[in-house]
Design brief:
38% helix, alpha+beta
Length: 1238
């Protein structure tokens, strides 16, 4: 916002010390469908809300329930509830920190609230209202009374129902006039409220010269620990001492309500004489708010407050009386509803806020500005209702900004503050009472003010204004009148008359004061100087000279004239300059004539220094215009162009479009078509925090196809139409519904019906298919020429006749050792499995570059995507039949095995055993498990499209919930249960019962050999674990179809967990295969992680943040627990023993070593031949341990005779050697329990 004098704000990352309490009131909401909700924010102070019950809750509740005063033109239910809308109130509280208000208003503006009540403090409101103007957020004040807020150039979106302090300052000066008081002091804090009141009193002192006021002003800083007496002395003491030296008896005191009792306590304790006879104290309205607290202070000191006058806002209105009764009833029935005292606290007298005091004894205020709060909420509700009644098509969320502000400013109604209306400064004026206190600070209204001061009751006493000594006692010194001075002559005080050119306004003045420049005193004994009149300036002490032409003085007593500022003119002797009228301007000082704004420009204010371009959405075609003509086009204007002079150039704004094409493609888009233009938001859809849009709406106008567009020939120019972004397309029959494609090569963007250049069909959603006579090849299409179609016949035939080879291979003998053939076959299985994993990963929406894109596309063959073989040239290519073909493919392959098994029964070769055939089928299904689950879950993978609907990722032309999707979904559930759940259940059962069934049933091991033969005997369950891993990977694309980044995280997590288990268990029978499998998982995980940089933005960023925090905490726990245990073990136990040395295991080791030492070379070779790969690796590592850890070398071990305890072995060589040792040593090995199987 260029026009703001403040261009940036420093907002804290957190609300600082603010009481950032947000309360959404359920009682304000209505659950009935269709009820309009208006969002009203409340920026209040904890002090006013908690201590004085200044809360909008009661006002909102009263208006929603139709109590006290009903909205004009509103509909209410039988029980009095407002039917047109309900107000949703959200409360935020702030301290005196200005950043709090900025944070609250920015939050409300960001969340689209209709308006904001507040803020509570003037100091906070000043900066908040500046931001309110920048964000066009309407702020309705109820307690911020600073005169600064009447400046509408800075705070144009702020209005208030409470009376500004300019009126309170007028009341104070009127009281001074009524009592003939002239000299006074003003003691205040430096905050915006108190300082603003002091500044305005000083302004009136200068302007109301007839009062002959002379004030001394002193302000002090506020401290958080102000209750401390030493802090009071440090902050207030010097200021009070300086004011005492003026000898003024009238003291004006203005501080915040939370300091009222503290300043009185300080003055009564340290300056008791200020409460003596002759002294008068005038306090601002905050003391009326803190009445109960000040009364407590007065009662604790031996002082009299008969000289106290307090200014209090006072309303005289039947609406206020009714609302006051409602307030009392609510306070008695349940204080906690809108105050922070319970009914029990009120009854017990322990709740000391003024509202409780009022309910208890009728004295004091019920919470200052309660009447302004009610009128603020009522004005918001009435204005919003007026907008709804005038135009029902306006959404509730759009009743804000300038629309709402202008509607409120036009209101006039009888409210709680009286007759409500707004002046040119957007202020409303109520009334005041000037109260006089008795000795216990109980107040009586003696003057009322409604523009003028009206005496209503006799004063309790007439304050004595005679001179006092510093102690407050009367003096015997001579009393000099004003116009003279009291000086010491010959040892005695005497009164001397002031000479001409000097004056004294006070009695007993110590000296006469020279007339200030700009005023004159023509005789001796002057009580004051006469200022030069307006339009003239002080030439000397006896003569005032008129201003020259082009200059002016707007106040008396000026010492020179000022030139008229730019935007105004003047004549000689002018007291003020005349502003240039609207539509005209002057750009420099001293102009005598105003210039007219040129065409295409306007000026809406008087006194302008330049003219503004017609803003986007407006135009003007004549000179001297005070305003440009609106295009009257919702969401439209001039396409962002300023200075437009033709109505025909009113078009849609960027981000909007005119839907001028119907389903048949006919167009009414030309600017001269005469169509009723309506601008719609650019079509899009939202998922989480991400907005999906496949169309670009540039707004404005464009050339009609084939013509050179010019604004001089409107028939050659049309409203700009949305175009598809790269990677998206739209159908000719529905040009405003955008559908995503696999990538930007398939859909290059542009006009409706346009796909990539290689034969994609523009009549299919997402360019999912090729045109007739072509088949899909990568991202493009190729002509059906028979080059690939033969594979559709050859590959099935080859597979069918290769089944006997696969049968014999998978049923070959199994040994403990892993031969080259077996190792090769297992490695090949790993390759197939990894490629299937990549096939699943190819279903994730990524923006891969070449050649990775082509590689991932070719891996779709593992999902039985037979389109790559040219199936579209031979078979039905509809999505339904493609999905059916893929689902039944595993059944067809299994049926081929069954056919060969049946053929073996009649053909002259060895019959195929049922168990071995089942093993071959199981191996096939295990190899295809990822593919089967991936295929059957495709109907569940629905991805949100910019058109607002979802379509299948694998079949972009199928809309979820429509057409073939229901049948595909049912078929997917059936085959998922058959393949994914059924096959896994059988494998899980076999894994669980294997330890028992393997010993009792030979057919069991043969039938489920495919599940166990590749793994170590003690890791027989790893085949089932691989199914779990692969099944989860197959389901990942279904879990979050719209969030590729989440899918990548899930992929990586599953792979990493499987890798940890793989490394921990080392399950493969061959040692090298474990290394290869681990390395493959690491590489796949790395590739998946690298793909994250090509993934679209995640709509679930908050969930990712929570997930990262959880992982971080888990990492800390994993790292910290061992450390804590180690420290505990060292400090408490004195040592760390991670592995306990067991004597029985040591004895077994010694016995095994003796047996091994007794083996000869032939027996050793026989033993190593019988041990499997992992046994040999274990022996090698044991040998290396002896060499590296203990320094043992061959030939260094000697046989030591000792008792041999051998507990059995399954190896014949060891058994034979044990028997030999038994004979030699005379031991009975058979007597030893055979519990350990070495």
């Amino acid at each position: 916002h260029d026009a703001l004098p403040i261009c940036s704000f420093e907002l804290p990352s957190a609300p600082g010390g603010a009481h950032s309490v947000m309360r959404v009131l359920p009682s304000m909401l209505v659950s009935a469908a269709g009820t309009t909700i208006l969002k009203l924010g409340y920026c209040g102070t904890k002090f006013l809300s908690w201590t004085y019950c200044i809360s909008p809750e009661l006002a909102v509740r009263t208006i929603n329930e139709g109590q006290v005063k009903r909205l004009e033109g509103a509909e209410y239910s039988e029980n009095g509830t407002l039917m047109d809308f309900q107000i949703e109130l959200v409360q935020r509280e702030h301290n005196a920190d200005k950043a709090d208000g900025l944070m609250i208003i920015s939050d409300f503006a960001r969340d689209g609230f209709n308006a904001v009540l507040g803020c509570g403090y003037s100091s906070v409101t000043v900066d908040a209202a500046t931001y309110g103007r920048a964000s066009e957020t309407v702020m309705i004040g109820y307690s911020a009374t600073s005169p600064r807020l009447s400046n509408k150039e800075l705070y144009s979106y702020f209005l208030r129902l409470c009376t500004p302090d300019s009126a309170q300052a007028t009341v104070i000066t009127d009281v001074m006039q009524a009592n003939d008081w002239h000299q006074f002091v003003f003691l205040s804090t430096s905050d915006a409220y108190a300082q603003g009141l002091a500044d305005y009193v000083a302004k009136l002192e200068t302007e109301r010269t007839e009062l002959q006021l002379k004030g001394t002003y002193q302000s002090v800083e506020f401290a958080a620990d102000f209750a401390d007496r030493e802090v009071q002395k440090r902050l207030w003491g010097p200021a009070v001492d300086r004011l005492i030296q003026t000898r003024a008896k009238v003291w004006m005191i203005c501080v915040g309500a939370d300091l009222a009792d503290k300043i009185y306590d300080f003055l009564a304790a340290e300056y008791e004489f200020l409460f003596g006879p002759g002294y008068v104290r005038i306090t601002c309205e905050t003391f009326a708010m803190a009445l109960g607290l000040v009364q407590g202070v007065v009662q604790s000191h031996p002082i009299s407050t008969m000289g106290d006058f307090s200014i209090e806002p006072k309303s005289e209105s039947p609406v206020f009386d009714a609302y006051l009764e409602r307030y009392k009833a609510s306070a008695v029935d349940g204080f906690s509803d809108f105050c922070h005292c319970s009914a029990e606290d009120v009854a017990a007298g322990s709740c000391t806020n003024p509202a409780q005091s009022f309910v208890a004894n009728g004295e004091g205020v019920t919470g200052a500005y309660m009447d302004a709060m009610f009128d603020a909420v009522f004005a918001f509700a009435q204005a919003s209702l007026n907008v709804m009644k005038r135009d029902a098509s306006i959404p509730a969320g759009d009743i804000r900004g300038r629309l709402l502000l202008d509607e409120i400013l036009d209101l006039e109604f009888m409210g709680a503050t009286g007759a409500v209306s707004f002046d040119e400064y957007q202020d409303n004026y109520g009334g005041y009472c000037v109260n006089q206190a008795d000795d216990e600070f109980h107040m009586t209204c003696v003057w009322k003010w409604m523009g003028t001061l009206e005496f209503v009751e006799e004063l309790k006493f007439k304050p004595y204004d005679g001179p006092k000594t510093s102690s407050g006692a009367p003096s015997d010194e001579p009393q000099c009148t004003s116009g003279s001075m009291r000086v010491m002559i010959d040892g005695a005080l005497q009164c001397i008359e002031c000479r001409a050119g000097t004056f004294s306004a006070d009695r007993n003045a110590p000296s006469c004061t020279p007339c200030p420049a700009g005023s004159v005193a023509v005789a001796d004994g002057a009580e004051g100087c006469t200022p030069c009149a307006e339009g003239s300036f002080g030439y000397n002490s006896t003569h005032c000279q008129p201003c020259d032409a082009g200059a002016f003085t707007d106040s008396p007593g000026r010492i020179s004239c000022e030139q008229c500022p730019a935007g105004s003119i003047s004549t000689p002797g002018s007291a003020q300059c005349s502003l240039c009228s609207r539509g005209t301007y002057t750009s420099a000082k001293g102009f005598s004539q105003c210039l007219q704004c040129a065409a295409g420009f306007f000026q809406s204010t008087e006194g302008a220094t330049n003219c503004d371009f017609c803003l986007p959405g407006t135009f003007s075609d004549t000179v001297g215009q005070p305003a440009c003509t609106e295009c009257n086009l919702a969401n439209g204007g001039t396409g962002g162009v300023i200075g437009v002079a033709h109505r025909e150039l009113c078009v849609c704004d960027p981000g909007f479009y005119f839907p001028c094409r119907d389903d048949a493609g006919s167009e009414l888009c030309a600017l001269d078509s005469g169509a009723n233009v309506t601008c719609e938001p650019c079509p899009s859809a939202e998922t989480g925090s991400v907005k999906l849009s496949g169309l670009e709406c540039v707004g404005g106008h464009e050339s009609v196809h084939g013509l050179n567009g010019s604004v001089d020939d409107l028939s050659s120019v049309q409203h700009a139409q949305p175009v598809n972004l790269a990677g998206f397309m739209s159908l000719v029959t529905s040009p405003y519904e955008s559908w995503g494609c696999r990538n930007e090569q398939q859909c290059t963007g542009g006009l409706p019906g346009v796909c990539g250049p290689d034969g994609r069909d523009g009549s299919a959603r997402g360019c999912a298919t090729c045109v007739n006579g072509m088949f899909a090849v990568g991202d493009g299409c190729d002509v059906c020429s028979g080059k690939r179609e033969w594979l559709m016949v050859v590959l099935p035939v080859c597979f069918f006749f290769a089944i006997p080879l696969m049968y014999n291979f998978c049923n070959s003998p199994v040994t403990a050792n892993v031969g080259s053939m077996l190792a090769t076959s297992m490695a090949f299985g790993m390759i197939v499995m990894i490629l299937q994993v990549f096939g699943v990963f190819s279903r994730v929406t990524l923006r891969l570059g070449s050649p990775m894109k082509e590689i991932m596309g070719s891996l779709r063959i593992f999902n039985f995507d037979i389109d790559l073989l040219g199936a579209e040239c031979m078979l039905d290519t509809s999505a339904w039949w493609k999905f059916v073909d893929r689902c039944v493919m595993p059944l067809i392959l299994c049926a081929c095995y069954v056919l060969w098994w049946a053929a073996s029964r009649v053909l002259p070769w060895k019959d195929w055993a049922v168990a071995q055939t089942a093993n071959a089928v199981g191996l096939l299904l295990q190899a295809l498990y990822i593919t089967m689950v991936t295929i059957t879950t495709e109907p569940f993978q629905c991805k949100l499209q910019p058109a607002g609907k979802t379509s299948l990722v694998g079949f972009p032309d199928v809309i979820c919930g429509e057409g073939d999707h229901a049948g595909m979904l049912a078929l997917g559930i059936l085959f998922t249960c058959m393949y994914g759940v059924g096959f896994f259940s059988v494998a899980l059962w076999a894994t669980i019962v294997a330890p028992k069934r393997s010993a009792s049933s030979a057919d069991f091991l043969v039938m489920f050999r495919f599940l166990f033969f590749r793994f170590r005997a003690d890791r027989w369950y790893w085949g089932c674990a691989l199914l779990v891993r692969n099944g989860i990977l197959s389901f990942v694309p279904v879990m979050s179809p719209d969030d590729a980044q989440a899918q990548i995280v899930l992929f990586s997590t599953v792979l990493l967990v499987a890798l940890v288990a793989q490394v921990a268990l080392w399950p493969w029978k061959d040692y090298q295969l474990n290394v290869v499998d681990s390395l493959l998982v690491v590489l796949v995980t790395t590739i998946v992680s690298c793909a994250a940089v090509t993934a679209p933005k995640s709509p679930n960023e908050n969930i990712f943040t929570v997930f990262m925090v959880i992982l971080f905490v888990m990492a800390l726990i994993v790292a910290v627990v061992p450390t804590i245990y180690g420290v505990y073990a060292v400090l408490v136990k004195g040592d760390v023993k991670p592995i306990e040395v067991r004597e029985d295991k040591m004895q077994e080791l010694r016995d095994a070593c003796r047996i091994l030492l007794a083996l000869d070379e032939e027996e050793s070779e026989q033993l190593f031949a019988q041990v499997g790969p992992f046994g040999r690796v274990a022996m090698y590592r044991f040998s290396e341990l002896l060499v590296h850890e203990f320094g043992v070398r061959a030939g260094e071990i000697s046989w030591q005779s000792s008792r041999l305890t051998f507990q059995g072995t399954r190896h014949s060589a060891l058994r034979k050697k044990a028997d030999s040792l038994e004979t030699e040593s005379g031991m009975d090995v058979r007597a030893v329990p055979r519990t350990v199987d070495l």
